[in-house]
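Consider the tokenized backbone below.
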């Protein structure tokens, strides 16, 4: 199912955003109204987030959190160890699986279960190679370098001479 908005013009003029457009187009597809368990998404800082899921009735060993590339999967399966004779059961104990799409470089830094809320801590950790870096401008005087492509000889001739010097 496609969304009501056409992303074709943006797909033609951008490079590397295919996954984003696919997510936007498919966000309504398969929307069967599944909203269990309810959750909150909280921004703690510029690079820190928390997802809180209401998992009342589940123990820590009945929950599974899996972080894959750009996907966080939280699932729960209640064990049938309770043989009580319920007159009314209002606390949902059905199994669930909830997926969260994560942006690039988002890492799960921890999880905690307290008072029926599963809190999953997320942090954006950008690799050093991808962080912006300052490039200093020189003093204005260019120094002569003995590099291939410099001077008045063709690069192929310089390569041959460099190999002869190394031998």
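A designed sequence for it:
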């Amino acid at each position: 199912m496609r969304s009501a908005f056409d992303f074709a013009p943006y797909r033609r003029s951008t490079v590397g955003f295919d996954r984003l457009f696919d997510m936007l187009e498919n966000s309504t597809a398969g929307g069967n109204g599944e909203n269990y368990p309810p959750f909150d998404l909280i921004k703690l800082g510029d690079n820190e987030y928390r997802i809180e899921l209401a998992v009342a009735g589940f123990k820590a060993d009945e929950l599974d959190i899996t972080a894959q590339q750009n996907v966080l999967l939280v699932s729960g399966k209640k064990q049938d160890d309770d043989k009580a004779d319920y007159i009314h059961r209002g606390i949902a104990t059905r199994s669930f699986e909830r997926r969260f799409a994560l942006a690039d470089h988002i890492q799960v830094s921890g999880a905690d279960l307290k008072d029926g809320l599963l809190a999953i801590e997320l942090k954006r950790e950008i690799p050093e190679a991808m962080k912006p870096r300052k490039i200093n401008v020189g003093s204005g005087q260019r120094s002569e370098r003995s590099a291939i492509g410099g001077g008045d000889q063709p690069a192929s001739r310089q390569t041959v001479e460099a190999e002869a010097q190394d031998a």
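Strands lie at 39-43, 48-54, 63-68, 71-76, 96-101, 106-114, 117-124.
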